[in-house]
Amino acid sequence: MEHAQHIIESTQEIFSSMIMLDVTPGEPYHRKNEMLNDSISGIIGLAGNTKGMLAIHLPTQVALSVTTAFLGMEVEEVDDDVRDAIGELANMLGGNLKAHLDPKGSEIQLSMPSTVSGEEYMIDCIADAQEITVPFTLEGNQFLVELQLSPE
Amino acid sequence: MDFAKKIIHTTEEIFNTMIFMEISSGQVLTEGQEVLDCHVSSMIGLSGDFNSMLSIHCPGNIGRAITSEMLGMDVEEIDEDVKDTLGEIANMVAGGLKESFAAEDINLELSIPTTVSGKSYTVSSPTKSNRVIIPFKLEQGRFFVEIKYSLR
Its Gene Ontology biological processes (chain B) (predicted)? Predict the structure, then answer.
């Protein structure tokens, strides 16, 4: 699916240019209702002619290293800095992906990002949305970037 | 922009006309991050002339009660039916807000709804954003409708 390629390009661009970390993409797959354990997710809505939702799911430890690299300061627990950083990461990914999906820049608008964190939670999309997830490896650890698009 | 008033009006209308449940709104909250002891949440992005995310947060029993009422069948657990129902209610509330803002020449587009469920999770928004949370009471307990927004 071409969207997997967009996710890979956007994620690599954002990580290398904003966070100065290299990430390696794995095989795209359909993530169906998997439980997320001890994780934090940044979520942003895509609104307009193309409707959807973009999410990045990071295990807590990975989120802490990403935030440390992003903000240039040590973070040891999931606090407001980490939540803001992961929300901002979703926002940057959404902005970059929007440029791929909508080169004219007039048909998709990003919502405000939201973060979900916890010991055990699930994030589902509506039943009929198309969904694709790309796993990425960062210094031996994995995180996921997921895109859901409405079929209309 | 009176977000609270619009959300109360729209939510009451949807519950009265589509779900046939009596609800009453409580004191509006503006607290930042809150767990609110909820086990299922749905969210949808609303974006355009301002940037926002609308969420509905329910304790498990309330999510089941609303779904039972709306679908006319017993619901034992937080399953696909509950997630789809709460996603659909978020979609309807956001649609109502969109219409209400459009009447004031404020244009918005919707993303697709997503649901979050689990034993323990926290939903938060960027610390710089504004937040309005409205508790609604029904026979079985309370649920919350929240909007996080930033004006452009």
Answer: chemotaxis
Considering only CB atoms, B110 lies closest to which of A35, A51, A115, namely: A51
pTM of the predicted protein model: 0.92
Cβ separation B51–A126 shorter than 8 A: no
Q: What are phi and psi of B136, to 5 degrees?
A: -120, 140
Neighbours of B150 (CB within 10 A): 13
- Are the beta carbons of A115 and B84 separated by less than 8 Å? no
Query: Rg of chain B over CA atoms, in angstroms?
Result: 14
Of B117, B120, B149, the CB nearest to A119: B120
Class of domain A2-149: alpha beta
Q: Is the dihedral of CA A125, A131, A137, A141 positive or negative?
A: positive
Domain boundaries, chain B: 3-151
What residue spans define the domains of chain A?
2-149
Distance, CA of A141 to CA of A28 (rounded, Å): 16
Counting one residue from chain A and one from chain B, the pairs whose CB atoms sit within 8 A come to 137
Among A112, A122, A129, beta carbon nearest to B148: A112
- Kindly report, residue by residue over B33-91, the tens digit of the pLDDT: 455 677 899 999 999 999 999 999 999 999 999 999 999 999 999 999 999 999 999 99
Query: What per-residue confidence (pLDDT) applies to A98?
Result: 92
Fold of B3-151: Chemotaxis protein chec (3.40.1550)
